[in-house]
Amino acid sequence: MSAAVALALLLGGGGFAAWKLDWFSGNGEAVSFGKNPPPAAAPEKSEPGAPATPAKPSGDPDVLMPSGPKSDFKQTTKLDDGTIIAKTRLAGAKSGFEGDVWVWAPKEYDDPKYAKSGFPVLIALPGGNGFPANYWSDRSLGLQKAISDGVQAGTSLPFIVIMPVLNPDAKYYYDGSDIPGQAKMGTWMAEDVPDFAKANFRTYKSRDGWAFMGSSSGAFVGMKTVLQHPDRFKAVIASGGEIVPDSPLWKGHQAEMDANNPEKLAKKLIDGNGPEVYINFQIGTKESGKERMTKFQQQYGKGPVKITIRDIQNGEHNGWHYVRGMKEGSLEWVSKVLKGPKPEAG
After folding, report:
1. Phi and psi dihedrals of 341, rounded to 5?
2. Above pLDDT 70, what percent of the chain?
3. Band of the pLDDT at 345, cuts 50, 70, 90?
4. What pLDDT score does 344 carry?
5. Which of 126, 192, 268, 333 is least surrounded by Cβ atoms within 10 Å, i.e. has the fewest?
6. Cβ(85)–Cβ(142) under 8 Å?
7. DSSP state, 134?
8. Residue 64: in which H helix or E strand, if any?
């Protein structure tokens, strides 16, 4: 018996009619993002039969139009505002790893007045096994709704949310790194996933439009990747996360593990005087781990490494409470750090 049918039986006839079955309407169907692409510009010379020249982004030279090829997306769920979470299969050209990726674009992405504008990207990473799913693609956690509500309230940018699998299997944690002899999850996360976003969406060339968010082990990976590649990513919201790599697969590879240790990466960034990166820790008052965050902030929150810590009152180690923390301030924090889309005049 499916969960939908079971819940319908529990609710009874009237409740079933009122229940949001449209959440699942269209699941499995093909999805196309960017329904309002920039119109074709007229050729400079109005010669009969002359081909139209595709329009280019206007105003901001940092805008990067989709490079293609387009991925095949299938709907996995629908939000109340009509926006879609969809899934595709990505074969990483640089890592050699193939895995699922979920995506969500805010309704502003299809607004014609933003048709030539880039959008900031938030790569959302789960905790736990992070395989075969990414729990941020489940609408029940409310991440996408929190962003939409924040846009309406003026406290959040309209982020495109990219949700890749975190690990290649459910047996080990791979620390989002290229551990020798294992799947290259560091390359997957830092190169293949952003390349995928650039192929399919209007984004930004500079790091000013790129950030991570994650919980638990996903928070570690997001923070580590920002510190490791400050030329590509600018910020991270790290919720209830670990500070140092702890995969058992590092055994015998100390040098490589050190190269993926946020403590050493932060020190390297400080010694090299930048570029600036922004780390926003989130921690529930009912979970452990704040002492690790505080110690990291005291030792490495200096120079180009900007660190804040947000306490989530009565918060526990789960996605619902981390989304609450984002609504209470972390989304506004990251939105002030990154750049957002600009509508065309008129």
Report:
1. -70, 150
2. 86
3. low
4. 83
5. 268
6. no
7. -
8. strand 63-64
Secondary structure letter of residue 78 according to DSSP = E
Residue 188: phi and psi, rounded to 5, are -55, -50
pLDDT digits (tens, 9 = 90+) for 172-198: 999 999 999 999 999 999 999 999 999
- What's the pLDDT at 15? 45
| Average pLDDT for 139-154 | 97
The Cα 207–Cα 233 span in angstroms is 5
The whole-angstrom separation of Cα 341 and Cα 62 is 11
Say which DSSP state 55 is in.
Answer: P
| Pick from 194, 141, 131, 201: nearest CA to 166 | 131
- 35, 110, 156, 242 from 127: Cα distances, Å: 33, 31, 23, 10
The one-character DSSP state at 53 is: B
- 298 HSE (CA, 13 A, CB side): 6
Asked if 286 and 324 count as a contact pair (C-beta separation under 8 A), the reply is no
Angle separating helix axes 217-228 and 262-271, nearest 10 degrees = 30
pLDDT in tens, 281-324: 999 999 999 999 999 999 999 999 999 999 999 999 999 999 99
The reported pLDDT for the residue numbered 26 is 82
The DSSP result for 142-175, as a single string, is: -HHHHHHHHHHHTSS---EEEEE-S-SSSS---T
Distance CA 336, CA 334 (A): 5
How many Cα atoms occupy the beta-carbon half-sphere of 1 within 13 Å? 8
Cα separation of 101 and 137, whole Å? 9
Strand partners, 75: 86
**Inter-residue contact 240 to 275 (CB < 8 Å):** no
pLDDT at 222: 98
What pLDDT does residue 181 have? 97
Which has the closest alpha carbon to 303: 265, 267, 257, 252?
Answer: 267
Selection from 248, 230, 88, 115 nearest residue 172 by Cα: 248
Q: CA dist 184 to 169, 187, 222, 308, Å?
A: 13, 6, 15, 30
Specify whether the CB–CB gap between 241 and 220 falls below 8 A.
yes
Q: CA 284 from chain center: how many Å? A: 21
